Amino acid sequence: MIFNIQRYSTHDGPGIRTVVFLKGCSLGCLWCQNPESRARGRELLFDARLCLEGCNLCAQAAPEAIDRTLNGLIIHRQKVTVAHLDALTHCCPTQALTVCGELKSVEEIMAVVLRDRPFYARSGGGITLSGGEPFMQPELAAALFRASREAGIHTAVETCLHVPWQYIEPSLPYIDLFLADLKQVAEEPFKQWTQGRASRVLENLKRLAAAGKQMIIRVPLIQGFNADEASIMAITDFAADELQVREIHFLPYHTLGMNKYTLLSQPYYAPDKPLKATALLEFAQQYACRKGLTATLRG
């Protein structure tokens, strides 16, 4: 189950890359920029701005789940079935109503990936699995990495690592680079903001380091969660001292994904303003450099 394949990406690993986004995540980060990725199954996205007045095609396709009223479209999400999703997939002429999620075979995904093999070779790029959390679909992830390795394509994964180790292990021989999130080392704020366990992530990071896997640590900086000097120092110390990685990326919080929550009829609980903290970001870079890391700010 995937929800996007993005070609010609330059921000998800070295070189020009094809990013395959898998659905499903074990965390519930309040600031998640891809909320449509969290559920394992397909979901409806509705953008009222694109909806045609007087059009009734979706209500006709799924009358039990969708009502057309004088005030617009009403989606009864708890009543949406698999049959409704099938009927609505190619229903809306303006794409105001779309179905997020599509079943694809390894062969179908690799057919897209292999189209850009010349660009990978020239730029040092390859395939990156993202999400959601790619390791929530461990068999698919391992199969894609294996097929890519057999095709001579560089492999990378963007992962929160909040999964059982046995979900990761089958892919280990075929992954060249881990772009691994390290959001927080303290258990309580991690649980409060992500609904997960920091200890699971830290243990998996240690196992990857012990296995000699190349890692770039990524730190999303969120005000109220970890955008403070003490948290940055603790995260950087763990990356440098426990994992002995060479590179760390700091990702200041932004609100570009906020509108997606409206499309899903979900509330947004994270800050409504992007992080503006020049002095803190300078501190993060300088402290990481003092710890011997190459530090990068990523937008």
From TrEMBL:
Transmembrane segments: none annotated. It comes from the Bacteria. Residues 11-290 form the Radical SAM core domain. Keywords: 4Fe-4S, Iron, Iron-sulfur, Metal-binding, Oxidoreductase, S-adenosyl-L-methionine. Belongs to the organic radical-activating enzymes family. This is Glycyl-radical enzyme activating protein. It comes from Intestinirhabdus alba. Its cofactor is [4Fe-4S] cluster. GO terms for molecular function: 4 iron, 4 sulfur cluster binding; metal ion binding; oxidoreductase activity. It holds the Pfam family Radical_SAM. SUPFAM superfamilies: Radical SAM enzymes.
